Amino acid sequence: MTTESSAYSPGLEGIIAGVSSISSIDTERNVLAYRGYNVADLCDHASFEEVAYLLLFGELPNLAELAKFTARLVEEQEAPGYVYETVRLLPPDSEPMDWLKVAIAALALSDPDPHNNTHEANSGRAIRLTAVLPSILANGWRILHGLDPLSAPHGLTHAARFLWLMTGESPDQYFEKVLNTTLILYAEHGFNASTFAARVTVSTLSDLYSGVVSAIGTLKGPLHGGANEEVMRMLLEIGEPENTESWLRKRLTKTPENPRPRIMGFGHREYKRGDQRAQIVRRYTRELAERTGQTKWTAIADILEQTMLRDKGLHPNLDFPVSPAYYMMGLPIPLYTPIFVLSRVVGWSAHIIEQLDDNRLIRPTNLYNGPAIRPFVPIESRSCASEG
Fold it and tell me: Lower CB density within 10 Å: C or N end of the chain?
């Protein structure tokens, strides 16, 4: 029996699931704004730390507020030793998004006031998670690759600290600038799948850490955060610019093994006229290609962009230019989605706090399309299903 309803929308597309003051997407003008500020202006003029403050507290900080916030991030940047010992016990080939969930769940056990779900307490947890994630991610990667964890010098930006922890050396300033920009752009994006998962989790009055773990599990999927890793694997598979068109034609051909051809890094449910974030990162990616002598990646990307727009009407999304940018900066491909977490934890936390400040359990209904009500048959009277 199938129940029909005009209110049903597969994937909840177009369904309003809540009210938020954190970000907005103007699809007509192609503008993403955080608390009313165009992300293009934030990328040009602000640090990730300023944007984190904006998302968590509603306004851009003044000098004194930023200094206090930055000092708090420094205070909270080291993970408890037992978190690293927990990671050390995991299989060396564990996927980063999986061991990151374990590490954050373990971190929750050291919360000094775990049952306090007030706005102030959750703001403190948001700062703690934002501060400590670069250390957990970089040092977790080091531990699982047989290296010792490091402690970064004080005075580094959020982006620079992560890059320093990965290598133990001062990062290239342009690399730091690129990473700062991508962290700003990844920080928040409305009721996306992972943010919605976080809000659903805490709507039960669960805690912020549980909401973030739920979000990480959701972000892991290649149709959400995992797309950035798949983009770079695609570029590596293509290999050279002259292979691009033939590779793309083959990949877009429907086969029994590939009934719904999909090219990762293209298209977005919110953006039909192009992703503003991708346009911002694109110029940095091209500059990186010139600086590092790896121009073949942008040459391949240009052909893919032109062909996909011409043949499919699809524009690249943020993941498309970010992937080669991270690759040219020497960052390991399995860390691309976890780097997304370093940034999006701020947006998740802002939404979790907003949800809990005016909470109602998120419990949608569904349309039933199973059998109609039928009589119960005792087991001795039931025939085998295979007998019809």
Answer: C
This prediction has a pTM of 0.92
Say yes or no: 177 and 236 in one domain. no
**What domain range includes position 145?**
18-220+335-357
Instruction: Look up residue 373 and give its two tokens.
Output: 């009500």
Spot the catalytic one: 268, 275, 315, 351: 268
CA dihedral 122, 125, 131, 132 (to 10 degrees): -150
Say how far apart CA 233 and CA 124 lie, in whole Å: 38
Q: Pick the catalytic residue: 275, 315, 319, 351?
A: 319
* Domain presence at residue 365: no
Mean pLDDT by 10 residues, the chain (388 residues): 63 82 90 97 97 98 98 96 97 95 97 94 98 98 96 94 96 97 97 96 98 97 84 95 92 78 78 84 96 97 92 90 97 96 98 97 91 95 70
Q: Are residues 282 and 211 in the same domain?
A: no
**Rounded distance, CA 38 to CA 3, Å?**
43
CB 202 within 8 A of CB 214: no
Active site residue 268: yes
